[in-house]
Amino acid sequence: MKEKPADRSLRQFWARVVKNRWFYVCLFPGFILMLLFNYLPLYGLLGAFQAYDPFEGFFASPWVGLDNFTQLFSLPDFGNVFWNTITIGFWTFVFGFPAPVILALLFNEILEPRFKKITQTISYIPNFISWVVASGIFYKFLATDGAVNDLLVAVGMGEPINFFGEPSWFVPIVVITSIWKGVGFSSILYLAVLTNIDPGLYEAADIDGAGKLKKIWCVTLPGMMPTIALVLVMNLSSLLNVNFDQVYTMQNSMNISVSDTMDTYMFRIAMQGQISDYSRGMAMGLFRAIICLFLFLTANGLSKKMGNGSVV
User: Fold this and answer.
1) Is pTM beyond 0.85 here?
2) How far is residue 261's CA from residue 81's CA, in Å, rounded to a whole number?
3) Nearest CA to 61 among 72, 38, 45?
4) Mean pLDDT for the chain?
């Protein structure tokens, strides 16, 4: 009897599973962790459509439909909080995304191995400093009697500036400190990509008389482009995921008008302890997740159409 195509495909599938069984065994712990910490908590999204009561649980709490979203959007602070999140996320993305690419290109041009290792190590160190400590450092440097203001006064720039008390300075501080902390560690991925570019392409560019900038533009960047596109997709999809630790530790009563983001707002209303606040916090989290999913699908589709690969 002739074997059916479906049966043959199933048999081939199980043959591959048996052949690669030890790879699946190695993947199993990671799969369990992802299931427990990424997928199982998704049932908590039910709370966005309920008057959630922690003592009743998700399945016993009364359903209210979209009332939480209606109340959320009608809150007087919501528009400002949403705009602050977009503003901080956008400028962090605009300046923070190209920074590790540029740093990796600069590292790639360093010919002295010892100096290259030292500079790379120095750039990685801030990544391992917590935002609590980092914020304390910057509070000290940017204080009215700190080193930065002492320097500004010494060069005749006028009166000391209260950087953390002036709302107009908050976004630039967040963007600069975010780049300072993460640029070195983020450049590791691009440095790994640079090692895989065929050296013969640079030799051909030398024969054609290309200079350093021309080789970077015509050889290095095209070789990095698939990775840059994938990182762009992931970064754009997390545009609204502003770093809570960073913003919360730099936030104070004087700059809260520009520093109150969706994360800090959700944290504050959740800590009020009222049942409706829990539900509104969950509604805001779901609202943000939907926007991030839309950004991810849009960026991923554009990247795929441009031939730079895609995440899914």
Assistant:
1) no
2) 5
3) 45
4) 86
